[in-house]
Specification:
TIM Barrel, Rossmann fold, metal-binding, S-adenosyl-L-methionine, 25 helices, 3 domains, six-stranded parallel β-sheet, metal ion binding, catalytic activity, globular, alpha/beta
């Protein structure tokens, strides 16, 4: 039997696309194996190639992980094994991928992989023009779950219910993908398939929660009506899904949310991206006002669903005030979780084009990493959106991409349909570094600050702290100064005692790092559990304050997923509740 080895980056959740491809390989009569790469250590891959002797190796490549993947591809080819590259990076940077592969598969990939498995695909660069009509194979989860038991034993499993998104967000590849395929088309899997897939998981693996990874779940109302009738009866497992706020509007939006509840939905993830309406409209291409955001989120929370908002800091033409406005909007909404990233200007997206056009980015994406949490790689402008907002108001063409620009070392000359419009000034190197530091601090603390009363004001205070005074203890002192006039010193002392009790300690014996900033843990569910975890992992022993914050931010995200968003772990409510 011929063999195909599939390779992807290791993440905390299973590589869903790889699982479906593995099912396709199985159905074609090939033997398949999956290797997931931890921390850029490709040693297990090379060992598997040597011992298992596959007929070909297929890489799923994402931008930010591409340099390391390319080096591995080169080494595999040097071993005499043909290499296929697919995934987002192959779709939008196919020419560079071809330097490191025998086959480059652009687009969805199911149809082209079938041709490869049938020996009817010549080497070279291939684009799947159609492919969206291809049916999903039943994924081969056992391949990954047995090799990586932590994924198999996870109480949360992912499923695709549909593929496709009609919206035009500037930072996303979906609009470009739709253009490449002649327009938007939604591929919706039959309810029969989803039920069968979920039942298959239940038969062999733990399952407390399904995460539907669709860009927009329940877009098709007729499909959703059937799903809401059958899922609770035939599967009976709660689920979390992703939607757009526009789909909560009017009677149909209310009906959609009601059907979610009937089907067993316990929570929703949706994107806000920015608290600044100009940036949402003209830079992020998300055309929704504050009223829609607040009203839509209220509808979700009023139905007893958990809510995760998503936002992006350090986008083109942002500044500290716009980032803090995003935090203020989350303070108003009070979501279960406020997931926050820092912009990566991916080539092939409208956002990438804006960043290049206005001299905000001069890279080739080789300076990006695979995460969304790293320091901004952009140059930023003075005054945030102030000056560009004025230029757009003065010109009949309202799209940044339509304007002509001339980039200088410290400024950008902008022209519209009627000629010269004005000048945008770029931050000098020192000011740019300061802003990038501000956004890192906000990103790490965003989940916590979104729960603190007037958290945007505390956030403003914290980003003002000089680098040489920045520490975990300083965050605690500023939090105490912020909360004392709001809640009173007596209440703050009560919280400290409750946190100590939750940790099984007396207030006097609280470990020094926890005693220095107890309020961080008091605003989070099962805060004592998180505090103990931080201590056990040696987080507060890190040499640099930014390392402490990196680790605390990561652990907080995971903690909130388990104890609040998905509720796969049981724990006490936040002490401040």
């Amino acid at each position: 039997m011929r063999r195909l080895l599939l390779v992807a980056r290791y993440y905390s959740i299973e590589p869903l696309g790889i699982l479906y491809l593995a099912g396709l390989v199985r159905d074609a009569g090939w033997e398949c194996k999956v290797v997931l790469i931890h921390e850029f250590d490709f040693t297990p891959l090379y060992t598997t190639v040597k011992d298992w002797k596959p007929d070909a190796v297929g890489f799923q490549v994402w931008t930010g992980y591409h340099k390391q993947a390319f080096a591995a591809c080169d080494r595999i080819r040097a071993m005499g094994v043909p290499v296929l590259i697919g995934g987002p990076h192959a779709t939008y940077f196919h020419e560079r991928c071809l330097d490191h592969a025998d086959f480059v598969i652009r687009g969805g990939g199911f149809g082209l992989l079938k041709k490869f498995l049938a020996d009817s695909l010549p080497s070279g660069n291939h684009f799947e023009k159609g492919g969206r009509e291809e049916t999903f194979p039943l994924p081969d989860r056992n391949l990954v779950y047995t090799e990586y038991p932590e994924m198999g034993q996870s109480p949360i499993k992912s499923i695709f219910g549909s593929v496709g998104c009609p919206f035009t967000c500037s930072y996303c590849y979906a609009p470009t993908f739709n253009q490449m395929h002649g327009g938007f088309a939604l591929t919706v899997r039959p309810v029969d398939e989803l039920v069968a897939e979920a039942q298959g998981i239940l038969a062999g693996w733990p399952l407390q929660m399904v995460y539907f990874q669709d860009d927009i779940f329940g877009f098709d109302m007729a499909w959703l009506e059937e799903f809401s009738r059958r899922w609770p009866k035939e599967v009976g497992v709660p689920f979390h899904c992703q939607i757009r706020l526009e789909l909560t509007r009017h009677d149909q939006g209310n009906r959609r949310l009601d059907l979610f509840g009937q089907a067993g939905c316990t929570g929703i993830t949706l994107a806000i991206e920015s608290g600044n309406e100009f940036l949402r409209d003209h830079v992020l291409f998300r055309h929704m006002d504050d009223e829609l955001i607040v009203e839509g989120c209220k509808k979700i929370l009023d139905r007893g669903l958990t809510l995760r908002t998503e936002q992006i800091l350090a986008v083109p033409f942002s500044d500290r005030s716009t980032d803090l406005s995003t935090l203020a909007l989350n303070n108003l909404i009070n979501p279960t979780m406020a997931w926050t990233s820092i912009l990566a200007p991916y080539g092939g997206t409208a956002m990438g084009s804006i960043a290049l056009k206005y001299g905000l980015y001069a890279g080739t994406n080789d300076d990006l990493t695979e995460t969304f949490f790293d320091r901004s790689v952009l140059r930023h402008v003075e005054g945030g959106p102030r000056d560009v907002q004025e230029l757009i108001r003065r010109d009949s063409q309202r799209q940044l991409l339509a304007m002509a620009t001339r980039v200088n070392s410290h400024s950008v000359e902008v022209e519209g349909s009627g000629g010269a419009l004005g000048t945008l000034r770029l931050l000098d190197a020192e000011a740019n570094e300061r802003y990038c530091t501000d956004t890192v601090r906000l990103q790490r603390l965003f989940n916590w600050l979104s729960r603190v009363p007037s958290g945007h004001r505390l956030g403003s205070t914290l980003v003002d702290v000089p680098d040489d005074e920045w520490s975990w203890e300083r965050i605690g002192r500023e939090a105490a100064a912020h909360l004392s006039p709001i809640r009173g010193e007596e209440m703050l002392e009560k919280w400290r005692r409750q946190l100590a009790d939750e940790m099984g300690l007396s207030p006097e014996s609280l470990p020094t790092p926890v005693a220095a900033n107890p309020y961080y843990f008091c605003y989070l569910p099962a805060g004592g559990v998180l505090a103990r975890q931080c201590l056990e992992k040696g987080v507060f022993a890190k040499a640099r304050p930014d390392q402490v914050l990196d680790e605390v931010g990561t652990l907080t995200r995971r903690h909130l997923f388990a104890y609040d968003l998905y509720k796969t772990e049981e724990g006490s409510k936040a002490i401040t509740t």
